[in-house]
Amino acid sequence: MIQKTEPAKKLAGTLVMPPDKSISHRSALFAAISSHTSVIENYSTAADPQSTLSCLRQLGVPVHTEDQRVEITGVGRDGFKIPDAPLDCGNSGTTMRLLSGILAGAGIECELIGDESLSARTMKRIIDPLQQMGCAIEGREQKFAPLKIGRHTGVKPMRYPLPIASAQLKSCVLLAGLFGDEPTEVVETVPSRDHTERLLDLKTEPFGTGKIIQSSRNDLLPAQNYQIPGDFSAAAFWLVAGSIHPEAELELNRVGMNPSRTGAYHILEEMGANFTQTNSAFAGKEPVADIHIKPAQLNPIELDPKLIPNCIDELPVLMVAMCFADGKSVISGAEELRHKETDRLSAMAEILNTAGAEIELQEDGMIIYGDPEFTPRPSRFNSYHDHRMAMAAAVLSTRSVGMCEIEGAECTSISYPQFWTHLHELTQS
Ligand code: S3P
């Protein structure tokens, strides 16, 4: 689908953010391996978290959905049924990597497959540590899906220093560790999102400048009632849109404010953004707040590479913000962007170049020469079927003087099915 976007005269209104994708996946997976019935309120209707639910059903887990309320009758750590067809993770890296940790730990004979994008993303990062733990897992060419998982003779204890700051990798290893009699320890020096250790209440201790997280069969998996907060990564598109548009006034309700996710909020504030937070509360174990956004003159910024994992999904739209800052911004240490649903560094470079921005693409980042008067050229943008590319291009196009077109725009359904409706509402109200 090609989405046409008219230049926005203004952006005004209040939005409730879609449910958090990362927390939706985890709540369903953790509920499935508990031996109790859990209720999840406000589960995401987006394609990725729905892939997790359909895989769980294939594994014999009773999953009942009523709108966004999901009831899962956990089968316990050892209760999965061997599926009679491959488990289709769709476009979802989180489904594939976290579910592999659980199924490899449990030793369930099965195959995990994904769409073209997911089948081209490296799984070596999870295959290696899972094999070291004694799990039976193999990939095509030792690094890609389809992944084949088999039975094993026991999960061996391991201390694993994370070679990449990845929450998916961290979670995969810790979830496999839940099946070991002796603890699995993961050493994290650069922090990434902490939903897994937070929701499972895993033992976490400071270790050097980082932390060490432990999991084992002794970790209890009690019944939990989950309330999924609004997705901060979805909110980030509006944080930027409301900052760069001179006629903007936006309010976002119930946004997840977990500090391991909100790097982009602080980066934008440091650039001069005008945000106010109200109604701070908790949705289960996760903090939430309402955010009020007004336009601001943005300053350029040089990002600390250590902050990259804290804003990894928000970097594309931060690049858009940097195009409107008054001077040179630098992103480095962001090579991981090349391993997402598409190579997001190259895709964003193409989108920004098409719009006429002045940028230099680097191996691990980008230099952006911003200008507050920058007017994106009316253009046709290629989303590369990556939801975050499509939404970043849409935010960019709100400042154009003519009509823009976004190819493959339906891919926003991966994380934010209401995105185009929300954009329309904000420009019309
Ligand atoms: C996610 C972690 C991140 C992020 C992805 C969701 C998660 O990936 O990009 O959208 O839910 O754990 P990495 O951990 O591979 O960086």
Question: Can you walk through the features of this model?
Answer:
- The protein folds into 2 domains: 2-18 and 231-428, Alpha-beta prism (UDP-n-acetylglucosamine1-carboxyvinyl-transferase, Chain), CATH 3.65.10; 21-215, Alpha-beta prism (UDP-n-acetylglucosamine1-carboxyvinyl-transferase, Chain), CATH 3.65.10.
- Helices cover 31% and strands 26% of the residues.
- The chain has 13 helices and 22 strands.
- The protein has helices at residues 21-33, 47-58, 93-106, 116-119, 124-132, 167-177, 195-200, 232-244, 263-270, 315-323, 344-355, 387-397, 419-428; strands at residues 3-5, 11-16, 37-41, 63-66, 69-73, 87-88, 110-113, 136-140, 144-150, 158-161, 184-188, 203-207, 210-215, 225-227, 248-256, 274-283, 286-294, 328-331, 358-362, 365-369, 380-382, 404-407.
- The strands form 6 sheets. It has a 4-stranded mixed beta sheet. The chain has a 4-stranded mixed beta sheet with strand order 4-5-3-14, covered by helices on one side. A 4-stranded mixed beta sheet has the order 6-7-9-8.
- Strand 16 (274-283) and strand 17 form a beta hairpin.
- The protein is globular and about 65 Å long.
- The two termini are 25 Å apart.
- Shikimate-3-phosphate binds next to helix 6.
Helix/strand/pairing category: alpha+beta
CATH hierarchy class name of the largest domain: Alpha Beta
CATH architecture of the largest domain: Alpha-beta prism
How confident is the prediction overall: mean pLDDT? 97
Q: What percent strand?
A: 25-35%
Q: What is the gyration radius calculated from CA atoms?
A: 21 Å
**N- to C-terminal distance:** 25 Å
